[in-house]
Design goal:
0% strand; DNA polymerase, domain 1; mainly alpha
Length: 155
């Protein structure tokens, strides 16, 4: 498991906890660990192998245990259970640049939008979406275009 893969999972956890309205300190702890891991000069797998996870700033005991589980098994039970608490589509929407946790939640719950394609169609048609003004609409549409262009470049 690479550092960037671990960061993505912890970033997702922070976003989902934020949507749930969890303790802001808990959310911040996950975000802080993401930043710390991004700045590491060595792979997290090496730190696990050498029993040096304490060197990651902000990684308390609970997060260190999650890192060990990720490195050793390739998945994290806590993350899977957390994702299962949300409607399908929230994770897909969170991947769109310009869509944060609160916007993703609003899109799914209030507008019934559960995919990037449905979001693009709604925004492109000029459909009124709660709490989304013109600037945000354009920013999200640009984010979707960027995602699609990046997907084409990888092929």
């Amino acid at each position: 498991m690479t550092n960037s893969e671990i960061c993505k999972i912890f970033r997702d956890i922070a976003d989902l906890l934020d949507i749930k309205g969890e303790n802001p300190f808990k959310v911040r702890a996950y975000r802080r660990v993401v930043t710390s891991i991004e700045e590491l000069a060595v792979p997290v797998t090496q730190l696990v192998a050498e029993n040096r996870l304490g060197e990651i700033p902000g990684a308390g005991e609970a997060i260190r245990k999650k890192i060990i589980e990720l490195v050793n098994t390739g998945h994290l039970e806590y993350y899977e259970k957390l994702k299962a608490e949300f409607p399908a589509g929230v994770m897909e929407l969170l991947a769109v640049p310009g869509v944060g946790p609160k916007t993703a939640e609003m899109l799914v719950k209030d507008a019934g939008i559960t995919s990037v394609d449905a979001l693009e169609k709604a925004l492109g048609s000029g459909k009124e979406l709660p709490h989304i003004g013109e600037k945000t609409r354009e920013k999200i549409l640009q984010g979707i275009r960027d995602m699609k262009n990046a997907g084409r470049e990888k092929r």
